[in-house]
Write a structure and sequence with these properties.
The complex is a heterodimer of chains A (298) and B (263). Chain A is 74% helix and 2% strand. With 298 residues, chain A is mainly α. The N and C termini of chain A lie far apart (48 Å). Chain B contains ten helices and ten strands. The chains are: A mainly alpha (298), B alpha/beta (263).
């Protein structure tokens, strides 16, 4: 392993980590705030990338294209929310259905499996070519999103979304329309995921039909890493959100290291899945095998 | 205040597990009535409360709250009329949110939830005073996550939440059953205080027959989805637990009821 080449790869990993950290913020809204496992993200990430890429190649300002990527993601989240709450389909299955449908829709949007997005031709706001600038832009996006999220989840409406994830029965008893709060959460979550997809398409120089595959796992990894490392010290909601972005950066730095250690890039998804499976199982295993007096749920 | 006319509910209708939980139940509560509800397991007590609260739709009959027919209103829409406390202390509060945040959620029951900040500055003072009245020392722990509190503390907070916006009807579903005797007594005491202070119309399910006699101005006994005994006023005050057991045997045709005592 070459330390030099690892150091050379690090800035790229950090930039990538920040962009995927924005996606992970979206995952956090569903997985942690709403307590729903939403698999729409694997599709909506690509939707965001596809929408941004197509708008850019058709002459739109790249920054403005992200707004439309955000809106497209929100639409995808709405579909999942609608079929979950109004048609009674379990959230996880609703997400899978939307994700599957999005494959066709993403192909329709792009007209092909990969849409190139050259930094030479377009004035992209992030790119592998300009890593330092990409890190800065990514950070600005992350900070703004974290601040807006902090505000939103502190409002009456945002509080009712948090309450929905915390206790569904209590929320209804207090007059919260839990169908509505779930839909809003899914809409915002997938909006952020698609926004990240748009950024990532610019960063890697193309939108690809498979770019979102396994996104949910990366999002979960970022959420869990952030929580494990900073959970005890970061109590404030904004800091918790920041820890997710940091978690995502750590994830990509670790990936860079294991690749330098000789792991094949095609083995990465296996590696990610194992990491997340282990991390997710820790609370359960702790409770089951290491707690005094046995399982709480016995 | 509450008018229930001939409501029925069968769970798992058409299957071998079909269970008629409510059978043509009618019940009228006047403003300020405090009614205790007793009956064995499966008598339909909780089903009655849940039918009123809109947890499910009834098969037939009509439910009116304060003159408004609520049959077609979903659970969250009926919430503006109702304060509810559940048997399980975990059920009434959001464990991951602070005491103040929980109260703020309840303070907005029946109102639209906007993009204004979730807790206004003036609310802190109000909540502090209300928590102080509980006498549990919670007023100094306003931002503590509710999940860290004991069952009794959580039920006391749920009671506050249920009554923060004065409900047309307070529904208490065995809200002290999961608590130890001392805590249960304390929560009942708080209940009585709030109900009297706000003159709340109340429907309280209890397994404790002494409590059922002691509290409220009216008592109803349920059995197999029907109200089999309904007593109020002086007659209710003079009841003994033995009288209730006797009544139960007489009216239900069931033998003196381990089912009632043990349930």
């Amino acid at each position: 392993m070459s330390i030099i080449s690892l150091l050379g790869a690090l800035p790229g990993s950090i930039a990538q980590g920040i962009i995927w950290g924005i996606m992970a913020l979206g995952v956090y809204i569903t997985y942690k705030v709403l307590d729903l496992a939403d698999l729409t993200v694997d599709g909506s990430l690509c939707t965001g990338g596809a929408v941004a890429a197509m708008l850019i190649v058709n002459g739109m300002n790249p920054l403005l294209s992200l707004l439309f990527a955000f809106i497209a993601g929100m639409a995808a989240g709405f579909i999942t929310g609608f079929i979950h709450t109004k048609m009674g389909i379990p959230a996880i299955l609703a997400g899978i259905l939307t994700q599957l449908a999005l494959y066709s829709i993403n192909m329709r949007i792009m007209g092909r499996a990969t849409q190139a997005l050259s930094v030479d031709e377009y004035n992209l706001i992030v790119s592998l070519r300009y890593i330092n600038k990409s890190i800065l832009i990514g950070l600005i996006f992350a900070v703004v999103i974290i601040l807006v999220s902090y505000w939103f989840f502190g409002t009456e409406l945002g509080s009712s979304i948090r309450a929905t994830g915390s206790n569904l029965n209590m929320s209804r008893a207090q007059g919260i329309n839990t169908d509505r709060t779930k839909i809003i959460g899914l809409v915002l979550s997938n909006g952020l995921v698609a926004l990240a997809g748009g950024l990532y398409a610019m960063f890697q120089g193309n939108a690809d039909i498979n770019m979102g595959r396994g996104a949910i796992v990366i999002g979960l990894a970022a959420v869990i890493i952030g929580e494990v490392i900073f959970g005890k010290i970061f109590r404030n909601f904004a800091l918790k959100l920041a820890s997710i972005v940091i978690g995502s950066v750590i994830y990509y730095v670790v990936i860079a290291i294991v690749i330098q250690l000789g792991l094949s890039t095609t083995d990465l998804k296996l590696f990610s899945a194992v990491i997340v499976a282990v991390a997710l199982s820790i609370p359960y295993l702790k409770n089951r095998y290491f707690s005094k007096g046995g399982s709480k749920n016995a | 205040m509450l008018e229930v006319r001939g409501i029925s509910k069968t769970f798992n209708a058409g299957t071998i597990n079909a269970k008629k939980a409510l059978d043509q139940v009618s019940l009228t509560l006047n403003e300020g009535d405090f009614v205790t509800v007793i009956g064995g397991n499966g008598a339909g007590k909780s089903t009655l409360l849940n039918a009123v609260a809109g947890v499910f739709n009834v098969d037939e009959g009509q439910i009116m709250i304060d003159g408004v027919e609520v049959n077609r209103l979903s659970e969250h829409k009926r919430a503006k009329f109702l304060g509810r406390v559940f048997q399980d202390p975990m059920n009434g509060t959001a464990a991951t949110m602070g005491i103040d945040e929980n109260l703020a959620l309840a303070y907005r029951r029946g109102k639209s939830r906007t993009l204004r900040w979730g807790i206004q500055a003036k609310e802190h003072k109000l909540y502090r005073e209300m928590l102080k009245e509980l006498g549990l020392g919670l007023e100094d722990r306003m931002t503590t996550r509710v999940g860290l509190l004991s069952g009794g503390q959580r039920q006391a907070i749920t009671l506050l939440m249920a009554t923060l916006q004065r409900p047309k009807l307070l529904l208490l579903d065995e809200h002290t059953a999961a608590l130890d005797p001392k805590t249960a007594a304390k929560v009942l005491e708080i209940t009585q205080k709030i109900v009297e202070r706000d003159h709340l119309t109340t429907l309280m399910i209890t397994h404790n027959m002494a409590n059922a006699i002691e509290y409220g101005n009216r008592l109803i006994m349920m059995h197999e989805g029907k109200i089999i005994f309904d007593v109020s006023g002086e007659e209710k005050k003079g009841l003994q637990v033995e009288d209730l057991l006797h009544k139960f045997t007489e009216l239900s045709g069931d033998s003196a009821s381990d089912r009632m005592l043990l349930s």
